[in-house]
Amino acid sequence: MRERTMKTAGKVCTLGLSGEWGIEAAAELKEALLTCLAEAKEVVVDLDRLEETSLPCLQLLCSAHRTALSRGKRLTLSVRRPDHFSRAVNLSGFQRHTGCSWDRGRSCLWMKEEE
After folding, report:
1. 77 in Cβ contact with 45 (< 8 Å)
2. Shortest CA distance to 62 belongs to which of 28, 100, 24?
3. What Cα–Cα distance (Å) separates residue 28 from each residue in 49, 88, 113?
4. Minimal CB count within 10 Å: which of 23, 45, 49, 73?
């Protein structure tokens, strides 16, 4: 079962995702991301309780990040990311060493963390 929470405090909207966010949840995730981007200057996607994700959901996170950048906003993922999420990012080919051409501030969601 999947759940989402949205909390806006000041200029920050935190979108919490828990449970399984497969392909069938893509439309719901898109709407939640757009709502947060409309309401706040900064969006934090909290993945702490995420149990499963899909390629379309990863694509939506990437698209939302680009949208945020184009609007002069910021979108980040929680510091703690479940191992299965990191594996999905790596296996899907999203893992990067540098951000895309939109990412001039090195805020890419998929950049490999320094070890």
Report:
1. yes
2. 100
3. 17, 20, 28
4. 23
3-class state of residue 67 by DSSP: helix
Cα(37)–Cα(27) distance, integer angstroms:
15
In tens, the pLDDT along 18-57 reads 999 999 999 999 999 999 999 999 999 999 999 999 999 9
> Taking residues 79-91, what's their average pLDDT?
89
- Token readout for 7 is 């909390």
- 108 close to 99: Cβ distance less than 8 angstroms: yes
Beta-strand ranges (E) seen in 27-106 are 42-53, 74-77
pLDDT: is 62 or 104 the higher one?
A: 62
Q: State the Cα–Cα distance between residues 11 and 55, nearest whole angstrom.
A: 29
Handedness of CA 28, 79, 54, 61 (dihedral sign): positive
- Token pair, residue 29, equals 């995730």
